[in-house]
UniProtKB/TrEMBL annotation:
Single Gene Ontology BP annotation: protein maturation
Family that this chain belongs to: Belongs to the HypE family.
InterPro entries hit by this protein: HypE, PurM-like_C_dom, PurM-like_C_sf, PurM-like_N, PurM-like_N_sf
Pfam (any one): AIRS
Taxonomic placement: Bacteria, Bacillati, Actinomycetota, Actinomycetes, Frankiales
PANTHER family the record matches: CARBAMOYL DEHYDRATASE HYPE, HYDROGENASE ISOENZYMES FORMATION PROTEIN HYPE
Annotated source species: Pseudofrankia inefficax (strain DSM 45817 / CECT 9037 / DDB 130130 / EuI1c) (Frankia inefficax)
Domain PurM-like C-terminal per the UniProt entry, residue ranges: 229-381
Domain (PurM-like N-terminal) ranges: 65-176
UniProt protein name: Hydrogenase expression/formation protein HypE
Domain of life: Bacteria
Length: 409
């Protein structure tokens, strides 16, 4: 009995020290940028905190969400931006073009917004084939049509041969925040927005004039990583790691073949289905948080959640869906599938009362056909993610260190 108490005490002390260390602000000790600064893990967090937050600090940015909520003339908008440097440009299941559109659409969707408009910037290398550029642009156009967004402005720059890797793409997205998961069906989504001093209403979805409050609480105002609560359930919308491993195999650097395709896809319809299915009062708080598991994979999403909400997260290894081809390739690369990027998967944290409805909603959509519950939110240890292994043990799932899969998006 004494031995068991001593072991528990030692374990608690170790966890306390880890928790204390993780709650310190990340420090940027590097004098030069490395590939790890773009991997979405610890180095990225340190760079963002020490350089970008330090210079641009404001409430919208400090949320460090996938998009920023801003008010414009009374309308609640969500803005997001992303740059794409994936290599190769074309890969099984997609290319840099549809990847850019889908990634930006998904960042808006998981913030609770209806994606509406995109901008696009190209950095092209001298000598890049016009035929390849046409393929990229055609893929972007098709992806935009599928997602129901319009590309409304853009920019093109050309750099000398050898100064870029063919083509880089930046996309910025604008979405309209829509409470309750409701949609905007009219052809002009901003049409009908009344003046901010209009005292009458009713007002369009996503619009509340200054000085007025919605008649019902806007539950999506509570949508964010910091709103997770102990007892909440963690779901993932399908098998993880498909995109990252597909890219690595497409580079031809591994003596390995597998029937894999990138999972790149627009998730706005899936998100709307999820929010609608969990909107009733019988579902408690409904959806607490969502994030698409891109750079750094599911592990990074869960660590950001744990630190933002000051909670612990416990997941079960056997419950995490991973295709055998992905698992095998990850073993050869010496990486954990939990850290491998997805481009068509979301992680959702929902109130326990909403878990069944959330899972059913995901499973009813082709993009969520492999959805499953992978874990839960707990009180202790706060700020940490724990994995119950298939062998009956427990290990810490930390933030990504280094960049095992460079330029996968």
């Amino acid at each position: 009995m004494t031995t068991q108490v001593d072991d528990a005490t030692r374990e608690r002390r170790v966890l306390d020290r880890i928790e204390t260390a993780r709650r310190r602000r990340p420090k940027l000790r590097d004098e030069h940028i490395t590939m790890a600064h773009g991997a979405g893990g610890k180095a990225t967090a340190a760079l963002v905190d020490a350089v970008f937050l330090e210079a641009f600090r404001n409430p919208a940015l400090e949320a460090l969400d996938d998009g920023a909520h801003v008010d414009a003339g009374g309308a609640r908008l969500v803005l997001t931006t992303d740059s794409y440097v994936v290599t190769p440009l074309f890969f099984p299941g997609g290319c840099i073009g549809d990847l850019a559109v889908n990634g930006t659409v998904n960042d808006l969707a998981v913030c609770g917004a209806k994606p509406l408009y995109l901008t696009c910037g190209f950095v092209l290398e001298e000598g890049f084939a016009v035929a390849d550029l046409r393929r990229v642009v055609a893929a972007m156009a098709e992806a935009a049509r599928t997602a129901g967004v319009t590309l409304v402005t853009g920019d093109t720059k050309v750099v000398p041969r050898g100064r870029a890797d063919g083509c880089y793409v930046n996309t910025t997205g604008l979405g309209l925040f829509h409470p309750g998961g409701s949609t905007l069906d009219d052809e002009s989504p901003m049409e009908g927005v009344v003046a901010a001093d209009d005292p009458v209403g009713p007002w369009p979805v996503g619009y509340t004039p200054p000085g007025h409050r919605p008649t019902e609480p806007d539950r999506l105002d509570r949508l964010g990583m910091a709103h997770a609560r102990p007892g909440d359930v963690v779901l993932v919308s399908g098998p993880i790691g498909d995109h990252g491993i597909t890219i690595m195999l497409a580079r031809g650097e591994l003596d390995l073949e597998a029937d894999l395709r990138s999972d790149t896809a627009p998730l706005s319809g899936l998100v709307e289905r999820l929010l609608t299915a969990t909107s009733g009062p019988e579902h408690g708080g409904g959806v607490r948080a969502m994030r698409d598991a891109t750079r750094g994979g599911v592990a990074t999403v869960l660590n950001e959640l744990a630190m933002a909400a000051g909670v612990g997260v416990v997941i079960d290894e056997d419950a995490v869906p991973v295709r055998e081809a992905v698992r095998g390739a990850a073993e050869l690369l010496g990486i954990d599938p939990l850290y491998v990027a997805c481009e068509g998967r979301l992680v959702a944290v929902v109130a326990p009362e909403a878990a069944d409805a959330a899972l059913a909603a995901l499973l009813a959509d082709p993009l969520g056909a492999g959805a499953t519950v992978i874990g839960r939110v707990v009180d202790d240890p706060p700020g940490l993610v724990l994995l119950n292994t298939a062998f009956g043990g427990t290990r810490i799932v930390d933030m990504l260190v280094g960049d095992p899969l460079p330029r996968i998006c």
